[in-house]
Design brief:
mainly beta, Porin, 17-stranded antiparallel beta sheet
Amino acid sequence: MSGVRAAVLCVVFAGALSVLCSTASAVAAQPEWGVCVAAKKAVYANASCTEVAEKKGVADHKGHFEWHAADECYEVRRDGSFNNDNCITIEQHGLPRDKGKFELAPSPTFALRSLDEPTSEILGVGEETCQAMSGDGEVISATEALVQLKFTGCQTLGESSHSILPGIPGEPGEIITEVLKARLTEAEVPAGSGERVPTTQLESESGPSDSIVWWEAGGRRYELTGAVAGVDSPSDAMGTTATTEFAVDNGGEQALQTTVFAPESLGPFATNWLSDWAVTYAQEIELRG
C-alpha cells in the first residue's frame, strides 16, 4: 500500500476504540492498525484483542490482553524501550536502556508489490495495462498511511505510456503516482450482503479532487483523480504480511475518474482498478476490523 506500507497502504490515522460490553466480541469503531499485547487486568480475553473479558455479559476487566493503536505510547511493567510517557527519552545517564516502563506501538514502513498484471478499465475509452507494480509506504496513525506506487511495463490503448508533469516523470512504460493517502475504512462485500470488511482507500494526499497521476500515451495526456478502496486480509491477527484486492464487485469502492486530453478535454470517464497486491510490513502489526 512506498508501503498500503499498500501500501501503501493506514493509514495511517487516529481512531477511537469502542467496546461492546454486552457481548463476548469487541471491535474498533472503524478498522485500525495497532498491537495486541499481554497485560494484567486488561480488557480483552484473546490474543487478537477482539473478545472482551466479561462475566455474565458484563465486561469485568479481567482479561489478559490490551489493545494499543499504532504510534500510541503505553505503559508496561518492565523491559520497555522508553523512560517516559511520551516515548521520546530512550537513554539514562547517556546510555541506551531497555528496562523502561513505556513502549511505543509500531507505525511501520511497508513494501507493496502486485501479484498479477495491474489493469485500469477506463469505461468508454479502453484499458491501461501494466506488467507489475511496486511501492512503499509508512503507517502514520491508527487509520492512515502514506504510499507511493510505481507501475512498469505500461500501455494505454496499446501504446507505451509514462507519467509526466505535473507529477513525477517516468521512463518509457513507467508510471509513478503522486504520494497518496491510504485510509482504513470498510465496505459491504459482496455488495448487498450486509457483511462489512476492512478496506484501504487510496486517494491523492490532498484529497480525491486532486491528481493521483498524469501520464501520456500515443500523443494523448491522461489525468486520474478520485479514490479507490481494496479489500484487506487478513484482519484480527498479528503479522507482517497482508493482501489488498481491487475489484469491481467489492462493495462499490471504485470511485476513480480519468480525463483524456487529446488535446481537447474528454470525460471524465469512470475508471476501475483490477489488481491484487501483497503488503509486507517492517514490523509485526495487526489490522483489527
